[in-house]
Amino acid sequence: MPILKRGSLFTIWIFALIIVWALPDIGLAGSPIESLRRSVVRIYTVSQTPDYSVPWDPGSSQEGWGSGFIIDGRRILTNAHVVSNARFISLEKENDARRYEARVKFIAHDCDLAMLEVVDAAFFQGTSALKLGGVPALDSVVTVLGYPIGGDRLSVTRGIVSRIDYRGYAHSGVDSHLVVQIDAAINPGNSGGPVIQDGQLVGVAFQGFSGMVAQNVGYMIPTPVVTRFLQDVADGHYDSYVDVGFQYFPLINATERRALGLGPGDYGVMVGEIFRAGAAYGYLQTGDVLLAIDNLPIFADGRVALDNDRLMLNEVVERKFKGDTVLLELMRQGQKKTIRMPLNTPWPYLMHANQYDVRPRFYIFGGLLFQPLSSGFYAALQSKPLLLRYYYTQFLEDELYLKHPEVVVISKVFPDASTSYLEGFVYGIVDQVNDTKIRTLNDLATAFERPAEFYVIHLVDDPQPLVLEGKAAREARERISRQYGITQEAYLEDSFVPPEWMKAQPEK
Amino acid sequence: MANFKNMRLFLAAALFGLIAACSSFRPALPESPLPPSAQRSLMRVTVTSQGYIFHRPWQQRRTVTQTAIGAIVPGGRILVTSTLVADQRYIELETLDTQQRQAARVAVVDYEANLALLEPMDPAFLAGRTAFELAGDAALGDRLTIWQVKPNGDVLSADGQLTSVELGIFSLDQFFLTYRLSSSLQYRFNNVTLPVVREGALAGLVLRQSATGQTIEVVSTPVIRHFLADARDGQYAGFPTAGFHYGATTDPQLRRYIGLPDGTSGIYVEKVIKGGPADKSGLRAGDVILQMGDYPISNEGQFQDPLYGRTSVVHLIRTLYHVGDALKLQVYRQGKTFPIQVVLDHRRPDQYLVPPYMFDQPPAYLIVGGLILQELSVPYLREYGNDWASTAPVDLLYYQQNQDYPNGGEQREKIVIISDTIPTSYSIGYENLSNLVVTRVNGRNIGKLSDVRRALASPVSGFHKIELQQHPKVIYLDPKELPLIHQLIIKRYRIPIPPLTP
User: Fold this and answer.
1) What residues are paired with B312 via a beta bridge?
2) Residue B203, domain extent
3) Is residue B336 in a domain?
4) Same domain, B163 and B261
5) Which of A176, A191, A411, A495 is catalytic?
6) pTM exceeds 0.80, yes or no
7) d(CA A111, CA A89)
8) Do B476 and A286 touch (CB under 8 A)?
9) Which of A137, A312, B275, B466 has the most CB atoms in a 10 Å sphere around its CB?
């Protein structure tokens, strides 16, 4: 399943940090590194992580630090995970005792990059901007700059380029892009720091393997990904990556090739699963044979010749933007066809993506806490009953989002005289309230705001109805809020479901 | 005598290390005297069984040999638990006094109630033996005796008090009335089961010992009585079900919503299984059952058993009635109360979308060009280990947990899956296919394994087209190549290929 990646085999760890202290920085030595170090910054953050089991609370705060660097236009780049959920960001640079407040201008969680701006323009005095280079060659030497653990001053390490590949980005947990593997010692705190070759930026240090699993394996975000980010935000808004919205099956098997009307050879992949919320729906059919993408022939393993390399065909789509199209050459039932297909972001995969800079959505009514299924909510669950596991895991594959773009779960029953018999309904998924089908948390809120003598909640796969008496529920409201310190009864913003899916089921 | 007995205890303790530690916790109950006939009414049963590996359905596990102490019952049969004889290959009986042995066969087995009746190959083997009479139902507080048997055939008794009688798991998630005795078994000697006796009559069979060793769970007398009565005519029907799910009516908000008057007690019918006994009798979801037979039903689904007090209606339906009996219900529906008669029936494991158990038969499978096809079953899912309920593929588990709601609403008898692929040069590119649900073959819907055989008889445009619910959705095989691939598999892997012709 190449298009929509779901994490990786090994636990990839991210260099995010918790301890902070600083020593005054002194003098520079005369070396080739002298000009480079004027481009590197240290980033201090205070962030707040929401607790999905107490969704109305602001969450606990942590301090951390990472690295960053300056590019033209007085812009500072770093990793998204360095500044995610940040409430306060400050910068330090070499040979300057001051701390400067910074703000996130753009943040791209799907490719772990962020751009910062500094409030005080004086910050840029004596700094120099890094120029972007290309993808470094295999076996060539690169230099990593940053502020890893083990000291306070700028650290420099060197390594060689070990591998250029397409891999999962741990920050979102679901996205895969081009990465460059290097054998330089990269450690926590290096995150967001520049990787340099011939005086130019060739990558952003961002993740590695834990020493338990592998040694000397560090990853950097190469410049094609950085450039794409800069181009995407050029219009003042980050639109995120686009995708083709289907899975392909490599055509290695000789019988499968013959059955699909292909001769023996190296070209072509078969279209397998097509996602209703993806771009290919309505354009492609299961069983189509893809022969070329944007005029690049597709090899039978799903790769294309690009940049003097054989890269996954996704790489063609990777470099595109919202509103772009892709030209597909295919064979359908023996007939050759050319299709121009607009790309989109297949949102249901966000179910499994780590969410940042959002608050947990919830709704409280009748002593019941309702929350939509999301990766943050799922991770906070103390037990994971099969129904929730099924809805979470199969959300995309079984197209559960068609009926339930948001899977609304009864996550808690606040013990009260009005909820004495409701404990057994915890972790039920709401299907219907009275006559209203519940597609989203907003639907649920609307249903409960409509006055009724009884609110009859029908759950998925559970035939016993949950009955709330309108009067009893309203009377209990204030009492329960006071008793359990509930400062807010609902938060209905920040859904990952696109607005058009929140409303009704779109038909193509 | 007392001294001598204590010394024997001491010796046994020294021999059986860990178990010895428990002996000091023995309840201080005086032991019941054993009747002289004790040895002659028991039989040591040694069973060698061999199950199948459902992930490699042509292959059997290594053999396992277990022993148990069976109770001779009228009709020349020996009562044991079904756990003992599941997937049995050879059963041997041994007399305790004379150590004579003879092979035996299973006469009747019920894997839900965890009971089985064995017969010696030659009925004369039981000549001169004493059959147990079945005890009357025990009451709470009664003292029951567990008969333990030493390797040399001596029978020892351990008394225990009946402390609770309620539903418990017999095997395979099946709930029946269970006796719980406060006692411990120092001399179980790895016997799978032991008889439990009350006043010289058979009252139960040991199911298991609690982890702390202080409580013994026992197949209760009513369940054994039901089983023996059913088995008597040679047409064993099994324990009945009514075919509905129920919930409590304790919540006053629910009661007011359904308009159930105060003082009226009963259970809320959540769901009636389509085609089941309750469905045929006209019971509907939303009905409230006020009475079953002569018993009023509480809001939580209990009736007042004359002997055991408040007891679940599950016991009432499954054990107080037989298959074919009419269960009279008083039903409350929209302000009216009226009677409904449900003719109870047994639901066989093959009547489930995902069969809950399969014993004594090799799993059916097909190998088609290296693809292993079989029907999804709970034994297949159990191959994922002790925590299979969380480690087996979640989409397959979902079928098992939601037997009554097949996805998509189409009527499938079974879920046919490609469980795995055997790599050959012909299956290059297919080697990672596993746990995929087959929906159609050559354009025909697949609702059971035999449908695959039938569909393979008519390839489409020279190929077998196999459609899957999951990615990659469709794969092809060449009918002309199949004999070649199958020969290769037989030769290289030594895996037998079942015939593909219907």
Assistant:
1) B302
2) 143-231
3) yes
4) no
5) A191
6) yes
7) 20
8) no
9) B466
